[in-house]
What we know:
The complex is a heterodimer of chains A (672) and B (316). Chain A has 672 residues and is of the alpha+beta class. Helix content of chain A is 48%, strand content 12%. A six-stranded antiparallel sheet of chain A has the order 8-11-7-1-17-16. The longest helix of chain A is centred in the first third of the chain and has 22 residues, at 130-151. The radius of gyration of chain A is 34 Å and the shape is elongated. The two termini of chain A are 18 Å apart. Helix content of chain B is 44%, strand content 14%. Chain B has 13 helices and nine strands. Chain B has a five-stranded parallel sheet. In chain B, a hairpin with a 2-residue loop joins strand 6 and strand 7 (140-143). Chain B starts with 13 loop residues before the first helix and ends in a 7-residue tail after the last helix.
Amino acid sequence: MGRLAAGLPLSRVQQCWLLLAQAVAAVPLWWRLPFWVTLVCLGALGWRAWMLWSGRMRVSRWLTVGLLGGLCFGLVAQWGNPARLEPMIALLLGCCAFKCLEMRRIREARTVLFLGYFIAAVGLIFEQRVLDFCLAVAAVLVTLAAQNMAERDPWRQYSLRGFSLAPLRSVGRLAVLSIPLTLLIFVFAPRLPSFWTIPLPDERQAQSGVSDRLNPGSISALTRSGKLAFRVGFEGPVPPARELYWRALVLSDFDGATWGQRGTAILQDGAPIHWAGPRRPAPDWRRQVRYRGEPLRYRVYQEPSGQHWLFAIAAPVSDEFGIGHTAGLRLVSRQPVTQRVMYQVRSYPDYRLDPVRLGAAARARNLYLPAGSNPQTRALAASWRAEGLGAAAIVARLFAQFGREYRYTLSPGEYGRHAVDEFLLVGKRGFCEHFAAATVLLLRAAGVPARVVVGYQGGELNPEGNYLLVHQYDAHAWGEYWEDRRGWVRIDPTAAVAPERIEYGARPLLVDEPAFLADEFFSLNQVRHVAVLNWLRLNMDNLNYLWLSWVLGYDSGRQTAFFGRVFGVFFAYPWLWLVLLGSGLVLVLAVLCWRGPRRRRSRIERLFLRLRRGLVRRGLVVRPGHSPARLAVLSERAGLVRAAEICRLFDRHLYANRECERQIRRRLRGWR
Amino acid sequence: MTDSPVDLPADSNPLEGAVRQVGRVLLGKAHAVRLAVTCLVARGHLLIEDLPGLGKTTLAQALAQVTGLAYRRVQFTSDMLPADLTGFAMFDKAAGRFEFQRGPLFCQFLLADEINRCSPKTQSALLEAMEERQVSVDGVSHALPVPFFVIATQNPHSLAGTFPLPESQLDRFLLRISLGYPDAGAERDLLAGSNPRARLAEIEPALDAASLLALQARAEQVRASAAVLDYVQRLLRATREGGDFVHGISPRGGLALLQAARAWALLGGRDYLSPDDVQAVAAPVFSHRLCHRSSGAQAGVDALQQWVESIDVLAD
């Protein structure tokens, strides 16, 4: 019957459901693809809907081929190299929409349906928030309803007037019934490592957040974005904002205009990286670090940045696989962070270096200034030096000046070739990168090893879930200088010029500047002053945070730990559970599906089935209840004379008790 | 199908003539007329369920006239008693004994109009007579004439002041049909033409009691091959196991289906049964014997027809 049904024309209600399912399944992808692709796909679906209303059913094959060609051309024009994720998804969506255009039979509907499930899953590639998950579930439910409709009693033609949400209701009931099984699979199914990778979105586009170069304007550019950088959940109380310096990068090299890191690909701070894991010999620098005191324990949920660096405070330690510790006391990831990652960190604010020693090469690196750059700043440094000021005194005097004469602003104006000179002596307006660069440069000119650190500062506490939200506009730059008895000392000139930036975050300070959040089209971040909307924003984020930590964060490590805790060590292996549950499921299905021995079909029945298949192949709408005599009439009407003759033979053989089997056999020979 | 055995050529088939004659009065309802004639030939009784004014009575009168049977019409009312139907024993003073007075039931063709208006007691008296083809009054059985054919009409139950027939009694009717509104063309002809009552008078009898009995006997001779019996069994099983209906069709219902299908085959001029014959009568045979599980209502004819077509004619 399945084969007969495949050839049946779709009724209008079924088509309605199929189009609806297509549209819903693609919703999460619409925002990800260029405007015109969405327009083309929706246009094709809309056209199909119009055909449904107007009763016009044929679309020329050449038209669909032409549309497909146009789509491919557009994709190549848009992306150049089509072997990447987005153009492939766009192609999938387009093909599916065009398939809808020529969908007339249940056979084609099945193709569209299964593509629909695939598209619903593809929607989760980019984002896995609660909302995305809900959209995917909705898409699957509507597609299931469409399938329910398409496969329900295929011999009946449902009229459009009978359109109801009944299929959705029955599918919803099934979905509710399947929740326990889903939970079981969620808890017990082993988390497999990904065994294939997809060409990721354009690397450069995907990179976001602080970059490995610092020049005037690079941090202030980040304040245009209200995007989330990462979330942090502390195990204990959240430390005060002035201690929350999330270090991402240490920039020691200055070429006269830009601060950066020379040479090393993964930014190892001039010394080997110490990767987490047992039996990894610690490099020299790591043995120098004494982790003392009570650590801060927290978990970072980092949004994709496309970069290698991670975020942590003070001297961090992490035992996660694939995470390394650098000599700059930072954490880095072996793979660029292209998907949301979670890592557990212990940070030791009271760490010490023992012995406190800076190698000659490192000292030279952190003192280097290109010849001829910023001569006035160097002269100033030299004069302060001549007064006999030490590093701490220089910093104190500079910060006092900052506090008196300088302004902290997002739009400081342009500075020329000797940017620090112009900023320090003329302009006196700047953002954190200006202050940090000037301070470090002045210290270096005074003979104190110093470097720039970039990362994020502070964060917004979400009182609903007691965790921190760190946004892109929290990006910050500050400095560190070397003191021979203490090691690296953090100095933040921003704290001198705008202490409220450190205490209360960037937002209240910048909210009136026109450039702040300028890249946001609309977000709840912009309407924080409306209490209800802010409450909504924080609660929604809290929901996502819980989702992240409980659902997405349930990885193989946590799974093994959970099994070990609940079932004992022996049952801690997810693979064991996979085998147990899998075989149990197969057994249950086998028992449910076993219907006892099937009656063997007689010869004449098999011949008749062959005849019917042949008629279906010739485009006839054959229902199971069509008798041979009726099929004869239908075949005659379709011009199939030979088929009609065979049908009549069947009628005589089966019902008029005339033995015609040999004739039937002869006629059916070679008739497929 | 030139070489298939047709023992009643279409033009000389008296049944076809009868159908054509009735069709001249009841315009645009050829299928309903064929079903009515089928019911007659299958020795069954017919239930017509429809709103007033759609031609139920006209159909019955035309059919009675074309078959030339002794016709009586009884209008059922709520105060009717069984004796009004069957007759009663009356004391004959001259003879000095009780004499049985025959009621209107003693005829060959009874039109029981609006059967659901009378009380259940009277209804069951009629239905008993239909089943037993005899009437017992005061311990004496009186056989009804042969052939005996009842057309009962009823209004849909939603109308006020009716006693709906219980399912067990509906089972006494072989077929249930409804006429429905005529299509535009037929209605125009009706409006433009002469009075249907006048046209009734023009009908010539195409049959008589003897030939009808012969045809009824002939219908029972229509051959049913193993394949078609398999098909009927598959249909019956599907009503019981498919989960679509509250109760399946009883074996008696299966016999009724076969009986009606045989008559339909004879009407089509064939001496063997094909699945088409079964399908043609299946919906009217099943419609008052099945209740949909989902709605609890009796199955609609169109939905049943679609359901029947979804049951495979040959294989599971």
